[in-house]
Amino acid sequence: IIFHLVLIFPKTISLKLCEPVTIYKTTNIECDTSPKHSANASCIVKALNWNRAVANMDVDLVGPLKNISVRTQVFKRDYTNKFQPFLVDVNINICDIIQRRNYLPYGKIIWNLVKLYSNFNHSCPLSGHLFARGVFINEKYVPVNFPLGLYKFSVRIFENFMEKPIENVGAIRFYAQAMFPVKVRRNKSRSNVYS
Question: CA 98 → CA 45, 126, 135, distances in Å?
């Protein structure tokens, strides 16, 4: 019976099977910078529809960053309305990931997202004006579906992380909600009024 349905309604069944079960809607973004390394930082969230909001970020680097490392952490908001650590807390040298000297799974996920949305998709050192446009958490880059709820993705950026002294460049806190997609139903009676 299922085989016959696939033959009769292939497009309908493929659309239903391909819809993401869980989506990650951006709710807020915060950016902090160190005046020694960066200036004119701005982070803005723009809602596109009920299911998607995107973030736009800009920053001007004062000097070149030669050995960039990031600490990525994920937090989940619990029943006490506080963010608690959730599964991920890793330190990654971005220059090693860019130059393919290191293949950490979380580093590859971050690098794939950076390549899609930003202009800092070349090897180290990084300098000048850096931006990211239309950033959102794409479901295909998340290895597993997170439980429904509110999450905070914290990315702290360092210069010379593996050597001393560690210099803080800045931080990005990205808030997202794991939720089921909102299905918008159009009222057919209202659409016929204007016809």
Answer: 27, 12, 19
d(CA 161, CA 114): 20
Q: How far apart are the first and last CA of the chain?
A: 40
**What is the maximum span of the chain, computed from C-alpha positions, in angstroms?**
70
Q: How far apart are CA 29 and CA 43, in angstroms?
A: 6
How confident is the prediction along the chain (195 residues), in pLDDT tens digits per residue?
544 444 454 444 444 555 558 889 999 999 999 999 888 899 999 999 999 999 999 999 998 888 888 899 999 999 999 999 998 898 888 888 777 766 777 777 777 778 888 887 777 888 889 999 998 888 887 777 788 999 999 999 998 866 777 888 899 999 999 999 888 777 666 555 555
Residue with tokens 């360092």, as numbered in its chain: 158
Strand partners, 53: 47
Full-model pTM: 0.77
What stretches of 121-194 adopt beta strand conformation (E)? 129-135, 149-159, 167-179
Tokens 């209202």 -> residue: 190
